[in-house]
Design brief:
Helices cover 36% and strands 21% of the residues. The chain is an alpha+beta fold. Helix 3 (91-104) packs antiparallel against helix 10.
Length: 342
């Protein structure tokens, strides 16, 4: 019987070498390593040991955490049958989602490519004809379906970038991510205004979650709290705006570069599940904001039939069982708030 990747001796040896190199890099850079529950190789993305890649033939494996890694680009670009542009805040759920989709549609096995950078940046990539540059590599890929917050998806349908209808599928809420044991004793959104508290916060320029965070800050402490977090502390240098919060917030906390950051609750649950030294502080419902995630077909999609199959799958019972593991809620048109995600 063929060995799985997890039990393949060569794979284990490669992981050991990556771990050894990551430990050296971590110590050399003076970066705080994770607790024993989290290995040094896990501190830096990617965090899923290649599981977010459905390519069947991977050839030479060369991933060096912190140095050479493309954490939010997945699969094989050679001849994909389905290309998905997914707002990055559920990158961790994509591996099981793709596996389930390919189980139900085996003709797509090993032929799906997906990106999970912030939705605003995905739009910029689409406007650039699908071309993107990461480090020294440039490639062009035309997406078949796009996924973000319901309001954003509707806006893109209205301007012709996407073709309706919008397909809503799950909901999410905000939480405050902190280091394990919460050493700065962050108890509420109001605490984020404390001058000594270092924050990692999504950048309003291209991370739509910042709109939901600002709305929750206003609920908790009025315009003064939102201004303190997103203006005063930015100017003072105690709020650092991220470029890709679903990667940077967790990493900045583990590096002791930040003390807290507001994220979607699913992201915090994922970090805790994989053993990183992180936890979260719940935000009361009266101060929280509900996101509705949605997707739609990209106008001129190269593989429209495949995109429609994914859009049908994404709001199926099988897909929701996967989302539910990370704290996502079920989208119910009659009862769900109209608040929207990125």
């Amino acid at each position: 019987m063929a060995l799985t990747r997890a039990h393949n001796p060569l794979h284990r040896a490669r992981r050991f070498l990556r771990l050894t190199l990551a430990v050296s890099l971590c110590c050399a850079a003076g970066i705080a390593c994770a607790s024993p529950a989290s290995t040094a190789s896990d501190v830096f993305p990617p965090w899923q040991h290649g599981e977010n890649n459905d390519a069947l033939d991977r050839g030479l494996e060369f991933t060096v955490p912190q140095v050479d890694v493309l954490a939010d680009f997945h699969g094989n670009l050679s001849s994909p049958k389905l290309v998905l542009f997914v707002g990055g805040n559920y990158f961790f759920a994509m591996a099981p989602l793709v596996a389930q989709f390919e189980k139900e549609n085996p003709e797509y096995r090993g032929r799906i490519f997906w990106e999970t950078i912030p939705p605003g940046l995905l739009v910029k990539q689409m406007k650039a004809g699908g071309t993107i540059t990461v480090g020294n590599m440039t490639w062009t890929v035309k997406p078949d379906a796009y996924f973000a917050g319901l309001a954003k998806v509707k806006d893109l349908i209205a301007d012709g970038t996407l073709t309706g209808p919008a397909v809503p599928y799950v909901t999410n809420q905000l939480t405050i991510m902190v280091r394990r044991d919460n050493p700065q004793h962050v108890m509420s959104l109001k605490d984020l205004a404390r001058p000594e508290l270092r924050l990692a916060m999504p950048n309003p320029e291209f991370e739509g979650v910042s709109r939901q965070i600002k709305a929750s800050l206003v609920k908790a402490g009025g315009d003064a709290l939102a201004k303190a977090v997103y203006e005063d502390k930015v100017q003072a240098g105690s709020t650092e705006l991220t470029q890709i919060h679903h990667r940077q917030t967790a990493l900045f906390l583990m590096q002791d570069r930040a003390d807290a950051g507001v994220v979607w609750k699913s992201e915090a649950l994922f970090q805790e599940e994989i053993g990183h030294p992180l936890t979260h502080v719940d935000i009361p419902d009266a101060e929280n904001t509900t996101a509705i995630y949605a997707g739609a077909l990209v106008s001129g999609a190269p593989h429209p039939q495949a995109a429609r199959k994914w859009l049908a799958f994404i709001h199926s019972a099988a897909a929701f069982q996967i989302f539910q593991r990370y704290g996502f809620g079920k989208y119910e048109p009659a009862s769900t708030s109209t608040s929207t995600s990125q």
